[in-house]
User: What shape does this take?
Amino acid sequence: MKDSGIVNIHGKQYQTVAYRVGKFREIHGLDYSLTTEIVSRDEDCVVMKATIATTEGRVIATGHSEEYRKSSQINKTSALENAETSAIGR
Assistant: This one.
């Protein structure tokens, strides 16, 4: 079965980040870069920043996210990855 990239969360249809990035690349190709950076990271919290920029380096958009390691079982081991995905999704 093919993954549609659409999931139901609390009764609402939601496009996954992978789906949105795929659509972005379909429309814009390699005209823009999508980069991430760790803003802060410690034993309690991770803050990430995602940036979309032109090939010339002009920033088009940014997104931030914050994940707390104790907030869920997944974040105990994957807070950085979750924060990065959330920042990209924004």
Notes: The longest strand covers residues 32-41.
